[in-house]
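Revision sheet: structure tokens.
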Amino acid sequence: MSGLTYAEVGATRGDSPLPEGYRHLRHRMRVGQGRVAFELAADAVLEWRMHAGMRVRPLTDRPRAEPGAKVTVHLGPGRFSFKAPCEVIWVADEPRRRGFAYGTLKGHPECGEESFVVDWDEHDVVWLTITAFSTGGTWYSRLGGPLVPLLQHTYALCCGAVVRRLVRAAARA
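Predicted:
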């Protein structure tokens, strides 16, 4: 995995403390209940539909997240959009836990890693957990200072809302 812009590759994989020197984000949202909701939510995350549902226009070289897959997320309208290139660094594919993390590549406004994990707990509840650590990678993201964590938190909330909506819509179909 060459080209990543940070050293702590894979740090979002478990429940260990996130690396020092970065802003941290951990956000957990209920997105459904039961096996069907788990499968639908996991597929929405792994097949980029969560990102597409947020209208951030993910362009990827693979239809499903897998280690080594490249994705560029376009934030904002048309030619005024920010490009955020990333590489998938790990994937979880377990009976009750699925998801992935990507790390930033050169050209991304931030430096760091973000994971999107769907869990199905022992109470039959399905959760989306987003974990991230990042720091400004460009002059404009550093200039954003205290606004950047607010934007990241809002992004995480929107991810949960999109996955919930996708699960409900698929369950009704």
